[in-house]
Amino acid sequence: MTTPATPEQPAQQRLPRTLTRDLSNHDGQTVRLQGFVHARRDLGGVQFLVLRDVSGVTQCVGSGLTLPLAESSVEVTGKVKAHPKAPGGFEVQVEDFRVISAAVEPAPVEIPKMEWNVNPETMLDYRVVTVRGLKERAALKVQAELVAAFRDHLMTEGFTEISTPKIVSAGAEGGANLFPIDYFGHPAYLAQSPQLYKQIMVGVFERVFEVAPVYRAEEHATSRHLNEYLSLDVEMGFIEDEEDVMSLENRLLAAIMTRLKTTAQAEFDLLGAHIPDVPAHIPRITLMDARALVTEKYGHAVGGKDLDPEAERLLCQHYAETEGSDFVFVTKYPRAARPFYAHPDSNADGTPSSEITRGFDLLFRGIEITSGGQRIHDHAMLMDSIATYKLKPETLEGYTEVFKYGMPPHGGFAIGAERLTAKLLGISNVRYARAFPRDRHRLTP
């Protein structure tokens, strides 16, 4: 029967709440479920309700029920019974049904029927509701576990989590692609990277990381870019060169994938995705060799200073086919393709190169997910680089000052959490790997 919404009974008189994932532990027992009306149907006086809670969905069967609109929050009390065709292999035979909070109008999208490739803009327009979908929340759960694994592993390697300003007076990468804001009458910007601050903090903790949003005022309208995204930043001191940084990321990714296999396998299964194995030594190739490889093997001429998206895809295809690796480091980037703080590589005689840096990118399944490298730590070299890049030293004084006081050789990288999540799960558009994405056309919801 249906019980109208009423003040709850005292806790001692009520059954404890059971989650749908635990129904197998209660076969034949009476349980109390709380969740949302995921789907409903009425077949000649017998009502079927699919209830969704944080752990999954289950089928509830009753008669004489007055079912509210989809997405209403409800409480079901009933007996658990094994049923081979029910989600999870069990259903609940309703003994009491209570509406906790009724939806006042039909949901704009039928959540059980949503697909990422159908009306994508509609799904984002109504994100406050569509984010409740099983696949949508699975992607966000994977990302949450990915971030937790990121934190946990770095802390085991002696890193300290930091928090850096998101309102800054100048850009970390030369002032381009910044969102300007009015800061009490003074010009300021949203931070495009914590890069300069995390380098400063190497002088404090030696090994630091941050999980925080960053902002890029880039007028992209692609499936791989966001204007606000979650950046997983790492910086470490007392390194020999960029190989130490790449080795750290290698270990970190292996730890992340190991955790995902334990904590998020159900979400990968739901999305039909595969958690990759991380090689003990991710393959490396220099940028110039990579450009030559995709031209000679695939006939793709690479323009510009970097690899274009098609070249990234082809290079990953090569390493997947030849070495069975979904990952590849592209190393030795030219100075023109790297920011002013990138450390120059060494010439054969040990002198600093004027053309090549110790910067790298990490590609995964056809797309860049990391940019990193060794940074300049010598004050004189840094000031020369700022001049070479034609930047204004006075706008960077708060950053460059620390290099007067004995900064160690250091380097790091940043991973875009949404981009990595999307590639792990086979999501074609990175916007669906963020709860409420921000791109050049979207400020709501």
Description:
With 445 residues, the chain is of the alpha+beta class. It contains 11 helices and 19 strands. It has helices at 120-125, 127-130, 134-156, 195-205, 242-263, 265-270, 287-298, 309-323, 379-388, 397-400, 417-425, and strands spanning 2-3, 30-43, 46-53, 56-63, 73-82, 90-101, 160-161, 167-168, 179-183, 186-190, 207-215, 228-237, 284-286, 327-331, 344-346, 352-357, 359-364, 367-375, 410-416. It has an 8-stranded mixed beta sheet with strand order 7-11-12-19-18-17-14-13, sandwiched between helices. Strands 2-3-4-6-5 form a 5-stranded mixed β-barrel. Strands 8-10-9 form a 3-stranded antiparallel beta sheet, with no helix packed on it. A hairpin with a 5-residue loop joins strand 15 (344-346) and strand 16. The chain is elongated and about 85 Å long. The two termini are 38 Å apart. 37% of the residues are buried. The mean pLDDT is 93. Its EC number is 6.1.1.23. Residues 195-198 are annotated as: Aspartate. Homodimer. The record marks 87 as: Important for tRNA non-discrimination. GO terms for molecular function: ligase activity.
Q: Strand share of the residues?
A: 25-35%
Task: Kindly provide the radius of gyration, computed on alpha-carbon positions and rounded to a whole number of angstroms.
Answer: 26 Å
Termini distance? 38 Å
Q: Residue ranges: pLDDT <50 for 5 or more in a row? A: none
Largest beta-sheet details: 8 strands, mixed
Count the helices. How many?
11
Q: Spell out the helices and strands N to C.
A: EEEEEEHHHEEEEHEEHHEHHEEEEEHHEH
Strand order of the largest sheet: 7-11-12-19-18-17-14-13
Shape: elongated
- The helical percent reads 25-40%
Question: What class do helices, strands and sheet pairing give?
Answer: alpha+beta
Mean pLDDT: 93
Quick one: how many beta strands? 19
